[in-house]
Amino acid sequence: MKLIDKKNVYLVYDTGNRLKKKSKQYDEIIKLKKFISHFHLKDKNWKGKNVIMGTGSVNFKYIFEAIKKIKFKGNFVFETNRGENPIKTMINNKKYILNIVSSIYGKTKKPI
């Protein structure tokens, strides 16, 4: 971002494509906070395959803890594996993410 040096250029943070071991994604989100315009929520396994959300290697708890820390107010896009029943998969994806968000923000707040 320093090389680009433009005030109107931002990042899309893709959780699946930025898969890293342990809490590296947390640290990366904190470092990039002022450049992130929105998040793509995606789960992948260590082989790089897109998988059903919650079955892969992305640690969404770390990600949403970082999102809370940077006080992110932007948008989220589900960029996920459709599964065999795309509507049911999306309902489950939403529940999965909202459960994580509720555990971090509490039940009374609606951060996303």
Describe the structure.
With 112 residues, the chain is α/β, with parallel strands linked by helices. The chain has one domain: Divalent-metal-dependent TIM barrel enzymes (TIM Barrel, Alpha-Beta Barrel). Helix content is 35%, strand content 16%. It is built from 3 helices and 5 strands; from the N terminus they run E-H-E-E-E-H-E-H. The strands form 2 sheets. Strands 1-2-5 form a 3-stranded parallel sheet, with no helix packed on it. Strand 3 and strand 4 form a beta hairpin. Helix 1 runs parallel beside helix 2. The longest helix is centred in the C-terminal third of the chain and has 20 residues. The protein is globular, with a radius of gyration of 14 Å.
Instruction: Please tally the helical runs, counting DSSP H or I stretches of 4 or more residues.
Output: 3
Rg from Cα: 14 Å
The fraction of residues in strands falls at: 15-25%
Helix and strand sequence: EHEEEHEH
Spatial ordering of strands, largest sheet: 1-2-5
Globally, the shape reads globular
**What is the H level of CATH, i.e. the homologous superfamily?**
Divalent-metal-dependent TIM barrel enzymes
